[in-house]
Write a structure and sequence with these properties.
Distance between the termini: 64 Å
Largest sheet: none
Shape: elongated
Radius of gyration: 20 Å
Length: about 210
């Protein structure tokens, strides 16, 4: 009995890092100041662009190479897309709501506010089908987003309506944005990443 108890205590001590929630998520906190060169570089880059290391990176930074790869895609979506930033924010916020990611909603409501996008429209997004605030182009896009983010089986008529307003390049940009933030949403839920309460936001990019 005593031997079994000591075995259990040693196992808890060895694996305890995986059991205790940290400040930012259900993973332990990464010690700061950072020692990994990827994290150090990312922190400097964020500060130079007016952003901050947010809880998503304070969690995924446990695997710096994975974090770096996902950030490359995030930057392409944020900085390199042809589709307007406003439309991309609509896509992200709607996708985050479908997934149920409080974390991504918190970040992107803040970014939409920083870009001074019409708050009434942002708040009406989850009821876009019945709202009078969205034009036909936006509704065609949101119809595609809804079907893609709810199983991926986009109806031919939905895609046809969507493709009347967007080029093939823009269609890929929007599709990649949906898939990226759908995955991000699942990750934030599975790892219980906590929304920031101190005003930290990722790099804002161009509005």
């Amino acid at each position: 009995m005593i031997k079994r108890r000591w075995t259990l205590l040693l196992a808890c001590a060895f694996f305890g890092f995986a059991l205790a929630d940290g400040t930012y998520s259900r993973l332990p906190d990464i010690p700061q100041p950072f020692t990994d060169p990827i994290l150090i570089k990312e922190q400097a880059s964020r500060q130079a662009s007016g952003g901050a290391i947010i809880n998503l990176q304070l969690t995924t930074g446990h695997a710096p190479k994975m974090m770096e790869g996902t950030l490359a895609l995030a930057r392409a979506i944020r900085l390199e897309a042809e589709t307007s930033r406003f439309l991309r924010e609509l896509v992200i916020i709607r996708t985050a709501a479908i997934v149920g990611s409080e974390y991504e909603l918190n970040q992107h409501y803040a970014l939409a506010n920083a870009c001074k996008y019409p708050n009434e429209k942002i708040m009406a997004l989850q009821n876009w089908k019945t709202s009078l605030l969205f034009d036909e182009k936006e509704k065609a896009m949101l119809g595609f987003v809804d079907e893609m983010a709810q199983g991926g089986d986009v109806k031919d008529e939905t895609f046809e309506r969507f493709s009347k307003f967007f080029t093939p390049k823009q269609i890929v940009e929007i599709s990649v944005t949906v898939s990226s933030y759908y995955g991000n949403g699942l990750l934030t839920k599975a790892l219980k990443i906590k929304p920031e309460t101190d005003g930290r936001v990722t790099y804002p990019g161009k509005c």
